[in-house]
Amino acid sequence: MTIPSPESPPPATLRFRVGVLLLIINIPFGYASVGVGAALFAKTHRVLWEAVGFGGYALSWAMLGLGLWMAGPEGKRLAREALRSFINRFKRNPPRDNELR
């Protein structure tokens, strides 16, 4: 049996992984719920779709809270880094000074 060093992170448990997953998907889930609910309401004029959109948005906040509880501060940091790296893939880099000439 090996003793882990104090610098090594603890092994990722299922609770930690699910928490990080909830932290990553809660933002797109909330915005998608509102968007789909608004689009369906605009098409059908049924108030039910507004409630479905709002319910999905509220559920995304519950996902955030549960994810923070399950993953803790380390999971929050890991999810933030994952979201930033995903978003940065789509950002255009401004040209450098030497590229303008």
Topology of helices and strands:
Blueprint: H1 14-44, H2 47-88
Helix pairs in contact: 1-2
Keywords:
single chain, 101 residues, 2 helices
- How many strands? 0
Number of helices: 2
Structural class: mainly alpha
Outline the low-pLDDT stretches. none
What series of H and E elements makes up the topology? Answer: HH
Profile the largest sheet.
none
So what's the overall shape? flat
- Average pLDDT value? 86
Give your account of this protein's structure.
With 101 residues, this protein is mostly helical. It has a domain of 62 residues. It is 72% helix and 0% strand. Helix 1 crosses helix 2.
Short description:
This protein has helices spanning 14-44, 47-88. The protein is mainly alpha-helical and 101 residues long. It has a domain at 14-75.
